[in-house]
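User: Fold this one for me? It's O-antigen ligase-related domain-containing protein.
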Amino acid sequence: MGIASVRLPDEAVLLALGVLFVAVAAIDMSLVPVLAVPGVFVVMRVGPMSGSDLLLGIAVLTALLLLRGRGVITMQPLLWSGIFYLAVTMPQLILNRYAENYIEWAHELVLVLGAMLVGFVIGREGHARLALGLYVSVCVVIGALACFTALTNGFQPVYLGIFHKNAIGAFLMVGLVVAFANPPWLGWSPWTAWTAFIICGLGMAAAQSRQAIVGGLVGVLIIGLRPRFHNGKRSRWMWLVLIPVGAFVYQEVAEQLASDDVFSSAVQRLTWYEASITVWMQSPLFGVGHRWWTTWHTGFGGFQPPNAELEVLTTVGVLGLIGFLGMFVGALWLLARMNPVYGTLGLAVVAAKFTQGQFDLYWVAGHASLLWIIAGICYGIQERDRAEGIVRTPHPVQTVWRRTRGVRI
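Assistant: Here's what I get for O-antigen ligase-related domain-containing protein.
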């Protein structure tokens, strides 16, 4: 590895990932899909793709070998929601015939359906605690570094090497939601979860990623309004946090829009929104194809629309938007119908990511797969418990007017 890093610097990362794969597979093949979860942080390029895409691809192939039909039918409705989106985006592949379009469509297939299968295998094989523990541990380190950097740079937006402030916020948002949910099948102590929650929250604030803060608030709100796993209580103190944080984000955005700075992030987004609508009008029904901002075949480029719906409209048109929204509505409905012990985490993460995508890039390697991996983990854990005869029943929701004897509100 040392020689490779000097003589073949471009291939050194690929070689390191290969060695890691062989080592993990030699210990336990079912551990290979776990690599895809912390692998979302590997955003550097490895040949034509990012490291996170490479690890996800390896994880998908391994997950397909490990499925063997064991309970995956329980996740079939969730898979159909992803298939619906991908199916309605296929017609534009005929209209927009260029390599980047075909490659990105296949990429999205892996980011959605492949990620769901990877998550399911992780959960069913009993590796959910390891996978999410590794992810949140990295988030805690990033959050602590973001806080330290903010203290040393005069509380300016934080950039950590290759991680942009919004990338930092997107990672920490998911870590915050996982830590706040802390479902019983993770086996984390309350102090561990609360420590991770606080550090991730402070890290998001230090990075000044407003999109992630809003998404995190939505995730926390969903978790707080659903039954708690230990006694059914709902978190009342969260309103003390949600209201001022929400007001802070609103004030920050309003000040940017009211200022004369044409280079502020809020004003820049409005410019990109306008350009995106112009691109969409070139092919409203089917879209102009994936990755148009890199091919420039529309006359526009150099930016990816910082809004999920606008990006989908420009790339795959109104038909694709119907499929995209149908995918999310179906997933949220299915996760909401699950036993809250399993479904609440997936529901909160998917809702948080969808919300964050209203103000930032959505189809980004790593970020776009993580929510579906976690949704798949929820199904996998449920299937594992069912197979082992483990019953996890949530307590009735506790309110001031409806209480279970012995429970304090």
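One thing worth pointing out: The first helix runs from residue 2 to 7.
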